[in-house]
Amino acid sequence: MPRPELALIHGSPGDAQVWKGVVPALDGRFRPHLPELPGQGAQPPLPGDGPGTVDDRAARIEAQLAGIDGPLAVAGHSFGAYVALVVAMRRRLEVSHLVLFEPAVVPILREIGEHDLASRSEAHFTDYIANHESGNPDAVSAMIDYWFGDGAFRAMPERAKDYLRDNTAADVLDVRAALDYRLPRAELAAVTTPTLVVCGGASPAVNHMLCRAAADLVADGQYDVLDGGTHAMLATHPEQVAAIIAGFALD
What we know:
Blueprint: E1 5-9, H1 22-25, E2 31-33, H2 54-64, E3 72-77, H3 79-90, E4 95-101, H4 108-111, H5 115-133, H6 141-148, H7 152-155, H8 158-166, H9 168-180, H10 185-189, E5 195-200, H11 205-217, E6 221-226, H12 233-236, H13 238-249
Parallel strand pairs: 1-2, 1-3, 3-4, 4-5, 5-6
């Protein structure tokens, strides 16, 4: 019997290597596919000078998965989970299951009436973009501290900081696209794909709010917590991440 297909979409900034601990832990239960976002990993950037849209990124992912015949499960992390959700909303691919690890769906805050938090979050990321464009080499610290908690960037190893600094420009394009997108309740409610949204138990409160909202607003959503996990759960808890994907997508 053929193994089920599974697409794993990385976050931003990043590439398919973020799943390097998860894929072996899946223990051959799936045929994994590792598409990459535009301008990251081996993928060329989107055409033009602007950030493009989240739909553009979803279309690039769909193009990389176009040869798959039949349904596939899709898992995504952070901004990759945002794109995975949009892939399911677009219905160009036959998505059997959707697993979202801490989706960076900041626009969903307005759909649940959290307008003050949405405004503060949008201002936070707008400042991040402005600081990057003004030449601040550590502008990316604002993005990291939002998802991991205050002081998280400062506590990172220098090698990780250097990677983030070197790839801030790509992340800024993704953040700009994410802030410009909307996730209307009606379109979310039309997502009938079984969906599991997972948040790290040690993550900031806003992450949990976003995860709960995504799970509540799709038609068939569940919310779960990975005990002890943070936004870095793919690196720190790869076996548990793999078990969550398999337990849900093979159900």
